[in-house]
């Protein structure tokens, strides 16, 4: 099996002179050469066939034992030059120093069938110089979550890294899932993820924190050359424009998270991609009953810094950290400030246009945004399921749309608790205003419905659905993972036979571990 590799990151940027194993601070270098550690019995559990073909892999190879060997970390294809990259980050609001790829190992940059570079990266392939106090491994449950969610996001139209494969290692990995002194042996697994680049805000923050301005400069030059060639060699103007684009891309990504009800859970700056891709699927979650204060991450339960409703402002804070890191390359702060303003503008625009899509309006003005806010307040106070509510709002004919049309029947029901009289009244008031607004809009009823169906998914990776698939997979049955993969490939289409995948979250899942609460243990 041959792929076309062009490992630009290694070729262009300084690496760690030491090839020793062992944890260390790595200065003056952006990567360390490191081999995946062999695993006992690699077995392919799932492959993303269209993505594999896009990378230039042959279909026969995907089912072969050789595929499991390569993507389980036991063998290399010609041209692969594994490395772990060096970055820092702000974690939960505090500078954390050097972090780096502690359990991710990049295999190389493939030139895909479209001529695009795609970096292949194994997650859970063993220790690197950046593993700090941990083992470099990943468990099956978190690997399934990353594999399923990155593909679900892709098909929802949310910018994201992709997932090529899920391979069981045959080795046990010990984790204390709730950090409560009960470590347990779990099954190990490795996901191969794919993106044009895995460069994070933290890649820029680390050299800046060490006053290594030449390294910072080289990294930015490399980034422009490879990710924004139209800006390369333009000096300060190109640098500023690049930062502005990072701001805009980040705004768009977060606006899409808000549209689909996705909560990242760990928006540390080491988990923010400069390409504006959703990256590092850990204790993420999906909104069931609408609650802007909700976070799935139990490690963040106290301050809930990374709650759903705060994501737009946290992204801005993170971009401000990136701006700080880049500031030694600028003569004044003004261009960076201008970039941050582009974030605010881009976010407001994206929020307006996505809200228009969600409400089925041709566009949203300030008053329409108020209508959206009122809807959100109502959804929260009456425990409405976000996904079902928006979908039903679009699918029910406007004329018959009242509170009772949204509740009661299992095929329609969008609430976790019965509506009382006051709530029913509030819904009917809101729906009356909404009906009026729709009737005044230029869109026909059919166009309105089509627009809403394209913005409001019917199927998302509900937390409990992922957990059910994981429970089955841990018992050796991959059927749940494959079925979810299938359904989530077409999230906007009604799929006969897939009714169970857009049901309200069952009561048992409300407080169950894995379904609504996740720790960083993975
Ligand atoms: P995260 O919050 O999961 O993005 O991880 C933060 C840092 O911890 C990154 O540098 C990771 O590479 C590292 N890390 C997380 N889990 C492990 C692990 N099991 N082994 C080694 N490093 C890890
Ligand atoms: Mg991370």
From TrEMBL:
Its EC number is 2.7.7.-, 2.7.7.108. It catalyses: L-seryl-[protein] + UTP = O-(5'-uridylyl)-L-seryl-[protein] + diphosphate; L-tyrosyl-[protein] + UTP = O-(5'-uridylyl)-L-tyrosyl-[protein] + diphosphate; L-threonyl-[protein] + ATP = 3-O-(5'-adenylyl)-L-threonyl-[protein] + diphosphate; L-tyrosyl-[protein] + ATP = O-(5'-adenylyl)-L-tyrosyl-[protein] + diphosphate. Signal peptide: none annotated. The active site is at 270 (proton acceptor). Its cofactor is Mg(2+); Mn(2+). InterPro entries: SelO. This is Protein nucleotidyltransferase YdiU. It comes from Pseudoxanthomonas composti. The gene is ydiU.
């Amino acid at each position: 099996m041959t792929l076309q590799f062009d490992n630009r990151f290694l070729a262009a940027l300084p690496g760690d002179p030491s090839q020793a194993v062992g944890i260390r601070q790595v200065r003056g270098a952006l990567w360390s050469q490191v081999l995946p550690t062999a695993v006992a019995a690699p077995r392919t559990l799932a492959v993303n066939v269209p993505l594999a073909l896009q990378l230039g892999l042959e279909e026969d190879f995907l089912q072969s034992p050789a595929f499991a060997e390569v993507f389980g970390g036991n063998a290399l294809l010609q041209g692969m030059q594994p490395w772990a990259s060096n970055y820092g980050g702000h974690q939960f609001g505090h500078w954390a120093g050097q972090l780096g790829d502690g359990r991710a190992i990049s295999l190389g940059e493939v030139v895909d069938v479209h001529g695009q570079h795609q970096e292949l990266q194994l997650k859970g392939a063993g220790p690197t110089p950046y593993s700090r106090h941990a083992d470099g491994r990943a468990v099956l449950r978190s690997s399934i979550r990353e594999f399923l969610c990155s593909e679900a996001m892709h098909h929802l139209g949310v910018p994201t890294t992709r997932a090529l494969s899920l391979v069981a290692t045959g080795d046990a990995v010990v984790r204390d899932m709730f950090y409560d002194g009960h470590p347990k042996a779990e099954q190990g697994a490795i996901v191969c993820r794919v993106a044009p680049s895995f460069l994070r805000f933290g890649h820029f923050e680390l050299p800046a924190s060490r006053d290594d301005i030449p390294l910072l400069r080289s990294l930015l030059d490399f980034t422009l050359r490879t990710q924004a060639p139209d800006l390369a060699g333009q000096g300060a103007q190109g640098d500023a424009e690049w930062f502005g684009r990072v701001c805009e891309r980040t705004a768009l990504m977060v606006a899409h998270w808000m549209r689909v009800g996705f909560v990242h859970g760990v928006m540390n700056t080491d988990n923010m991609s400069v390409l504006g891709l959703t990256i590092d699927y850990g204790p993420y979650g999906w909104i069931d009953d609408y609650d802007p204060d909700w976070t799935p991450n139990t490690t963040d339960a106290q301050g809930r810094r990374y709650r759903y409703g705060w994501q737009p402002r946290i992204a801005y804070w993170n971009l401000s950290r990136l701006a700080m890191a880049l500031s030694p390359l600028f003569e004044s702060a003004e261009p960076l400030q201008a970039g941050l303003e582009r974030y605010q503008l881009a976010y407001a625009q994206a929020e307006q246009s996505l809200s228009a899509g969600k409400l089925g309006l041709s566009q949203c003005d300030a008053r329409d945004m108020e209508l959206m806010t009122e809807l959100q307040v109502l959804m929260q106070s009456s425990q409405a399921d976000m996904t079902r509510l928006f979908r039903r709002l679009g699918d029910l004919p406007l004329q018959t749309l009242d509170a009772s049309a949204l509740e009661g029947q299992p095929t329609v029901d969008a609430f976790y608790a019965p509506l009382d009289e006051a709530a029913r009244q509030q819904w009917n008031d809101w729906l009356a205003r909404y009906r009026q607004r729709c009737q005044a809009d230029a869109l026909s009823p059919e166009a309105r419905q089509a627009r809403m169906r394209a913005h409001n998914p019917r199927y998302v990776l509900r937390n409990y659905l992922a957990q059910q698939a994981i429970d089955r997979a841990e018992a050796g049955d991959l059927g749940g993972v494959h079925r979810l993969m299938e359904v989530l490939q077409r999230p906007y289409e009604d799929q006969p036979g897939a009714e169970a995948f857009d049901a309200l979250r069952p009561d048992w899942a409300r407080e169950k571990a894995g379904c609504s609460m996740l720790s960083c243990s993975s």
